[in-house]
């Protein structure tokens, strides 16, 4: 009787199993170190939470090969299924995004999305020689074919996506067997996933999405900051503001505000540079430009140091981001605008410096030379003169020319408190 009562008590529990739960990861933007860190940490956290599956919403134009491979390794090694979903409508999974989508255990796309165009792009926009490009292309083809074969998707289409940069819409991808579902919303996708079976290393997994609990893992604050700062245009602008701020502070040590702003901008710029593969020779040239600009403030070079600084800055700008693909490049309008501002600023500094050095002194003994005054007594050869509102002892430099009281005189030299004068024309 006691066992019968216990069975009656357990029947509701057996009839209504625990609700399944899934983790939602959502990333929009270029695939880089931030995406790698976010998705990899998200998969680890989902496994710790004992989630049943992961829904990865993706909208990307592509990105860095190293970051893409890090994400794919994590997905392939995941103990729970990863559902790749190109979302929202109008989104895409291009270039690196195709590799990630094909590596997912289940793939889906929203209507109006596309994936493809996975041909490798040379870093910095420079086209390597045919031999090197062939090696890069063959490596990418072998990688994407192995992923497609592992997931039971069309490896020939995957190869064409790399070699010919072909792309497929959501419906085309479904017809070609590249994806499992087309769903307009995450809710619709969950309905279609219910009962779907996936083979995992530990055995077959059946999706139970009806009434499943959603756990959303978003980007953490520092990951969002890194994502914002992982923009070469912003990094470059921060670098320039930092350089200007430091130069202004060196030129006027009492001006605290430019120095503080400059240092803060430089810190943020270097913080952003840590997530991008940059050419350190370019960064070194920009550092040299900063040193030359500071020396121009301290040393009179009549523009030679500034000219060298501008050349270093231009060359450093052009090669600093050569190690990044187009998605992480600096736009030419930004480069041209910054260069124009830099050149205009330092041309102004040079002009002011030159004007200061060639301008006639207005104080001291040199400032008296050339001034016109009036003799207040006969100079024979010494007498009293009135110059610039003051009385001075004046000595005629040429005694043969008589200077009488009331004559206009011109200062030609100064010896102590005595002015050497001549009769003004």
What does this structure look like?
The chain has a 6-stranded parallel beta sheet, sandwiched between helices. Strands 12-13-14-16-15 form a 5-stranded mixed barrel. It has 3 domains: 17-220, 2-enoyl-CoA Hydratase, Chain A, domain 1, CATH 3.90.226; 231-320; 364-423, OB fold (Dihydrolipoamide Acetyltransferase, E2P). The chain is of the alpha/beta class and 425 residues long. The protein has helices spanning 2-15, 33-48, 65-76, 96-103, 130-151, 155-163, 170-175, 186-193, 221-229, 232-251, 256-273, 280-298, 304-320, 332-358, 364-368, and strands at residues 21-28, 53-59, 82-86, 92-94, 106-109, 114-116, 167-169, 181-182, 197-200, 203-206, 213-217, 372-375, 382-387, 390-396, 408-415, 418-423. Helix 3 (65-76) links the parallel strand 2 (53-59) and strand 3. The chain is built from 15 helices and 16 strands. Helix 10 runs parallel beside helix 14.
Count of DSSP-assigned helices: 15
Strands of the widest sheet, in order across it, are 8-5-3-2-1-11
User: What is Rg?
Assistant: 38 Å
Structural class: alpha/beta
Indicate how many domains the architecture comprises: 3
CATH class of the largest domain: Alpha Beta
Can you tell me the residue ranges where pLDDT is under 50 for at least 5 consecutive residues?
A: 6-17, 123-127
Distance between the termini: 137 Å
Query: What average pLDDT do the residues reach?
Result: 83
Helices, strands, pairings?
Layout: H1 2-15, E1 21-28, H2 33-48, E2 53-59, H3 65-76, E3 82-86, E4 92-94, H4 96-103, E5 106-109, E6 114-116, H5 130-151, H6 155-163, E7 167-169, H7 170-175, E8 181-182, H8 186-193, E9 197-200, E10 203-206, E11 213-217, H9 221-229, H10 232-251, H11 256-273, H12 280-298, H13 304-320, H14 332-358, H15 364-368, E12 372-375, E13 382-387, E14 390-396, E15 408-415, E16 418-423
């Amino acid at each position: 009787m006691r066992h019968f009562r216990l069975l009656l008590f357990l029947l509701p529990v057996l009839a209504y199993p625990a609700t399944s739960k899934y983790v939602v990861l959502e990333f929009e933007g270029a695939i880089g170190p931030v995406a790698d860190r976010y998705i990899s940490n998200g998969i680890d956290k989902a496994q710790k939470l004992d989630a049943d599956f992961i829904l990865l919403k993706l909208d990307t134009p592509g990105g860095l090969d190293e970051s893409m491979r890090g994400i794919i390794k994590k997905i392939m090694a995941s103990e729970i299924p990863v559902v790749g979903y190109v979302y929202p409508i109008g989104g895409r999974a291009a270039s690196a995004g195709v590799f990630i989508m094909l590596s997912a255990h289940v793939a889906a796309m929203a209507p109006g999305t596309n994936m493809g165009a996975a041909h490798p792009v040379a870093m910095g926009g420079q086209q390597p020689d045919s031999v090197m490009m062939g090696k890069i292309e063959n490596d990418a083809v072998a990688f994407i074919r192995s992923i497609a074969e592992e997931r039971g998707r069309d490896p020939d289409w995957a190869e064409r996506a790399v070699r010919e940069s072909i792309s497929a819409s959501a419906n085309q991808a479904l017809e070609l067997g590249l994806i499992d579902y087309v769903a307009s919303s995450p809710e619709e996708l969950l309905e279609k996933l219910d009962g779907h079976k996936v083979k995992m290393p530990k055995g077959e997994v059946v999706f139970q999405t009806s009434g499943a609990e959603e756990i959303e893992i978003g980007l953490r604050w520092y990951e969002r900051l890194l994502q914002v700062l992982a923009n070469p245009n912003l990094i470059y602008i921060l670098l320039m503001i930092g350089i200007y701020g430091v130069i202004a502070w060196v030129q006027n040590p009492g001006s605290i505000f430019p120095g503080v702003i400059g240092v803060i901008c430089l810190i943020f710029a270097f913080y952003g540079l840590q997530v991008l593969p940059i050419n350190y020779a370019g960064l070194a040239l920009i550092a040299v430009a900063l040193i030359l600009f500071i020396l121009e403030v301290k040393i009179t070079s009549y523009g030679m140091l500034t000219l060298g600084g501008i050349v270093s800055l231009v060359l450093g700008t052009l090669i600093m981001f050569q190690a990044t693909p187009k998605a992480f490049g600096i736009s030419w309008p930004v480069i041209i605008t910054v260069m124009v501002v830099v050149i205009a600023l330092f041309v102004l500094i040079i002009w002011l410096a030159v004007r200061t050095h060639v301008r006639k002194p207005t104080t001291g003994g040199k400032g008296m030379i050339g001034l016109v005054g009036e003799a207040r007594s006969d100079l024979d050869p010494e007498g009293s003169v009135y110059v610039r509102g003051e009385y001075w002892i004046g000595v005629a430099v040429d005694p043969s020319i008589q200077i009488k009281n009331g004559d206009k005189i011109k200062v030609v030299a100064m010896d102590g408190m005595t002015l050497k004068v001549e009769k003004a024309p």
